[in-house]
Write a structure and sequence with these properties.
This protein is α/β, with parallel strands linked by helices and 255 residues long. It has eight helices and 16 strands. The chain has one domain: Spore Coat Polysaccharide Biosynthesis Protein SpsA, Chain A, CATH 3.90.550.10.
Length: 255
């Protein structure tokens, strides 16, 4: 089964880091966010990835083209102009990188991958979400629901305290930042049937999800475990601290 990853956006809310590289290439530890996400999938046997690149896509291509150089010790024989890599652990991945354009909406980016998906179910996610969701259980749930798309629904940390008012505007209770502000959102980590390519709506992929919901073809897999979207510098620093403190719950692989 293939996994498609949206990785072409401008990442404007993380502009402190994305002026030179796309957001999925921002590092946590010494590895890009994109690598962390691919490692999550690889734990569940997913080895083939299609990356929908756009903004500064060359940096993603350069990373994988020089993957040995980034991840192995190396001996440089300057006189003979040779390099010998002393391999550590190299991933058994096949990575296809599509340049889908700089300002292309996500729905139109996905459309460009249609020729790489045969008559099969595929996985789809974004290049900035970290989670400990079980991909195996997600796939099984998708099969059970018989819909076109199953997305992982999550409740992120709340942003605001919640006031409970009666009819006279008296505050009867106060909840300190309820999880998800009592709402579920799309956490990415989706399973899609190939028929989705015949139902893609113009513009952002969210338009397709809305359309499928009206057709009763969209289902949610509730995930109450760890999930974090790295959207801002605060999010990035938080993810880095979790990693440095050995508390990164999305690290479902062993070294």
């Amino acid at each position: 089964m293939k996994c498609i990853i949206f990785a072409g956006g401008l990442g404007t809310r993380l502009s402190e880091k994305t002026d030179k590289i796309p957001k999925p290439m921002v590092e946590v530890g010494d590895k890009p966010l994109l690598w962390h996400i691919m490692k999550i999938y690889s734990v569940y046997g997913i080895k083939e990835f299609i990356i929908l690149a756009g903004y500064k896509q060359h940096s993603i291509k350069e990373y994988f083209n020089n993957y040995y150089l980034h991840n192995c010790s190396a001996t440089f024989d300057l006189y003979n102009n040779t390099v010998t890599y002393n391999q550590t652990k190299i991933e058994n991945w096949k990575v296809t990188i599509l340049d889908t354009g700089i300002n292309t909406p996500t729905g139109d980016r996905l459309k460009q991958a249609k020729h790489l998906i045969k008559d099969e179910t595929f996985l789809l996610t974004y290049g900035d979400g970290l989670s400990d969701v079980s991909i195996t259980q997600l796939i099984e749930y998708h099969k059970l629901m018989h819909g076109m798309v199953t997305l992982t629904s999550v409740q992120p940390e709340g942003k605001y305290g919640n006031l409970i008012l009666d009819n006279n505007n008296h505050i009867t209770n106060y909840e300190e930042k309820p999880v998800g502000d009592n709402r579920w959102i799309n956490g990415g980590y989706m399973v899609c049937n190939k028929q989705i390519f015949n139902n893609l709506q113009e513009g952002d992929f969210a338009n397709t999800l809305k359309y499928l919901s009206l057709q009763n073809q969209l289902h949610a897999y509730p995930h109450k475990g760890f999930w974090k979207s790295v959207d801002t510098i605060w999010d990035l620093n938080y993810a880095r601290k979790l990693w440095d403190d050995d508390e990164a719950k999305w690290k479902v692989w062993s070294d």
